[in-house]
């Protein structure tokens, strides 16, 4: 591997504080790096410095000569008058991809990219201006993928992609030559694509080997070591302070080295990290009836999203809805939330239902207010367990502390605005949560806090998400919308959804969802391996329980051997039993190791 980018003692400061302090890192030509960290920690700033779009205040960033860097920014600005041709193969946004327009038809790679991203229906002359934000972002990704680059930098590439599109993109990036750097909240994607993880926190960047799972384990170990070091520091501090207080009353001075040691311990306090501890607020009592759909029709223009669908949502149900972009997931949630009416049939809503709808849009936030005022607009006091909190205290629970509560809503980052949106919803004491892509713009720590909150949620949850990690953790039941007018129960969850897409008809306009072919290639490869991995994980759990049981039995036999040390006959029998237990345990350990490789 050859080095292509170096950061040498890089520092960066904004009015809000120090973002980076003497960061030194390197990128090699075959690296696949995932960048994680809290919202506002500096991930996007790091990418901008790597591409030299932004200069550091101290230190330097050096590139290999003739380095080709392609980058997808988080906020995309495409010319409104441009066409698909201009963006993907022209020069409207990036350097021209091809020498001649006829190569569009002759280059299978371009069409493969559009198919994989769920846009095979687009033509060269389709205007970009009227397209949705998701479609424009996918066109921008396609423009990057069809161009050769030594380093590809993607900021939140999985936003606006469905489950199948994310799976296809992961496979495409694994086959692509060159270095890759990606900022994403999608933990499955991090594990599937990345071999190194950079954590941006505490004005520095820490590098870990492996994807999300490896980073989680390494970070847990680092926090454990830090906690032990802090515990030792506190113990030393207590001893030094106790020594300074001790001694005969006549002593009027203390040795200076003792005072200096105590002062150093007091000063050596690690900086407090921002934490998000989402907690469940009060929930209004939910009756026996939640939603009942009878022969419901839903349409979007001329397209039929649902046709005569019967569906029952009960108290405590935890439901995930999967589907391609444009399949109708958001429309269905808007109907449940009462934002729009069905186009036919009947919707019965329980009399005790108090629904909170977390939409993909952030426009419902009052941008003219400050953060605390936006919370007080919903509730000035709320119940959290047996405590009553003010709006300011509630904001602190959700990670907005100190002077941050006076920040104008318009100045918050995307993740912070998303968190504020969630806070305002929970403050209304809902008993039904309708979540439309809740993971968009949230950092991984906030996602973990959100999932922990949803784990203990006593009400009903209906979530539309492309984040398979969230779906598999939060939902008990999965439904799919495939563009054929049906709402299909999927007992096999995400895996069954991908299987059905693989088995769907080729082409569009035949009743399949607009992105029905997006994950065919990836899903075909992963279908068997995913099933094997799931089966292996279940078997691993059984083996682990068996090992625990045998370990306990082994300890009991050792205790009995010590107890009957003088009884030769008893010792012989116990020893034979112990050997059998140890042999069985060794066999199970070998099986466990073999299955652990399959489970990944």
Automatic annotation (TrEMBL):
* Residue ranges with Basic and acidic residues bias: 519-533
**Which segments constitute the ABC transporter domain?**
5-227, 288-510
Signal peptide span: none
SMART domains found in the cross-reference section: AAA (SM00382)
Report keywords, A-Z. Answer: ATP-binding, Nucleotide-binding
GO molecular function per UniProt = ATP binding
Its domain of life?
A: Bacteria
Where are the residues of the annotated region Disordered? 512-533
Q: What is the name attached to this protein's record?
A: ABC-F family ATP-binding cassette domain-containing protein
């Amino acid at each position: 591997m050859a080095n292509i980018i170096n950061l040498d003692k890089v520092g960066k400061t904004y009015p809000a504080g120090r973002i980076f302090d003497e960061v030194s890192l390197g990128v090699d030509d075959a690296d696949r790096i995932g960048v994680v960290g809290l919202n506002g920690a500096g991930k996007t700033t790091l990418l901008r410095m790597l591409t030299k779009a932004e200069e550091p205040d101290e230190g330097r960033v050096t590139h290999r000569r003739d380095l080709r860097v392609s980058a997808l920014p988080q906020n995309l600005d495409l010319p409104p008058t441009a066409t698909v041709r201009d963006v993907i193969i022209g020069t409207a946004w990036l350097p021209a991809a091809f020498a001649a327009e006829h190569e569009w038809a002759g280059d299978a790679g371009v069409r493969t990219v559009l198919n994989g991203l769920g846009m095979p229906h687009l033509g060269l002359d389709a205007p970009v201006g009227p397209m949705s934000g998701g479609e424009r972002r996918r066109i921008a990704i396609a423009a990057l993928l069809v161009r050769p680059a030594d380093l590809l930098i993607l900021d939140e590439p999985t936003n606006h992609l469905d489950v199948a599109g994310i799976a296809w993109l992961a496979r495409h990036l694994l086959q692509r030559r060159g270095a890759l750097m990606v900022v994403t909240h999608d933990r499955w994607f991090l594990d599937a694509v990345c071999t190194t993880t950079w954590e941006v926190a505490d004005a520095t960047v820490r590098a870990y080997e492996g994807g999300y799972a490896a980073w989680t384990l390494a970070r847990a170990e680092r926090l454990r070591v830090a906690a032990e070091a802090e515990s030792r520091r506190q113990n030393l501090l207590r001893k030094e302070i106790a020594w300074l207080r001790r001694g005969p009353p006549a002593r009027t001075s203390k040795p200076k080295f003792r005072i200096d040691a105590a002062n150093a311990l007091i000063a050596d306090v690690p900086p407090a990290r921002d934490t998000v501890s989402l907690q469940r607020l009060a929930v209004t009592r939910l009756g026996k009836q939640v939603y009942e759909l009878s022969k419901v029709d839903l349409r979007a223009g001329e397209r039929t999203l649902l046709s005569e669908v019967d569906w029952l949502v009960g108290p405590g149900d935890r439901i995930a809805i999967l589907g391609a972009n444009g399949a109708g997931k958001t429309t269905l949630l808007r109907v449940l939330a009462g934002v729009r009416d069905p186009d036919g049939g009947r919707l019965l809503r329980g009399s005790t239902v108090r629904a909170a709808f977390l939409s993909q849009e952030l426009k419902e936030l009052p941008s003219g207010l400050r953060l605390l005022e936006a919370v007080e607009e919903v509730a000035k006091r709320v119940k959290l367990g047996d405590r009553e909190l003010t709006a300011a205290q509630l904001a602190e629970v959700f990670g907005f502390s100190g002077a941050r509560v006076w920040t104008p809503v318009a100045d918050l980052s995307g993740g912070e605005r998303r968190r504020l949106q969630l806070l305002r919803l929970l403050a209304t004491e809902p008993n039904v949560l309708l979540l439309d892509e809740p993971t968009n713009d949230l950092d991984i720590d906030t996602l973990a806090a959100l999932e922990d909150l949803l784990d203990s949620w006593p009400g009903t949850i209906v979530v539309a998400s492309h984040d398979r990690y969230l779906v598999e953790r939060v939902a008990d039941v999965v439904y799919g919308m495939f563009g054929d007018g049906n709402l299909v129960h999927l007992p096999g969850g995400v895996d069954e959804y991908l299987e059905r897409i693989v088995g769907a008809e080729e082409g569009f306009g035949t009743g399949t969802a607009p992105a029905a072919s997006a994950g065919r290639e990836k899903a075909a490869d992963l279908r068997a391996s995913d099933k094997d991995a799931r089966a292996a994980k279940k078997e691993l759990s059984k083996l682990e329980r068996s090992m625990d049981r045998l370990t306990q039995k082994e300890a009991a036999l050792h205790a009995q051997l010590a107890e009957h040390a003088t009884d030769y006959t008893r010792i012989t029998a116990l020893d034979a039993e112990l050997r059998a237990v140890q042999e069985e345990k060794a066999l199970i350990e070998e099986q466990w190791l073999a299955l652990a490789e399959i489970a990944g």
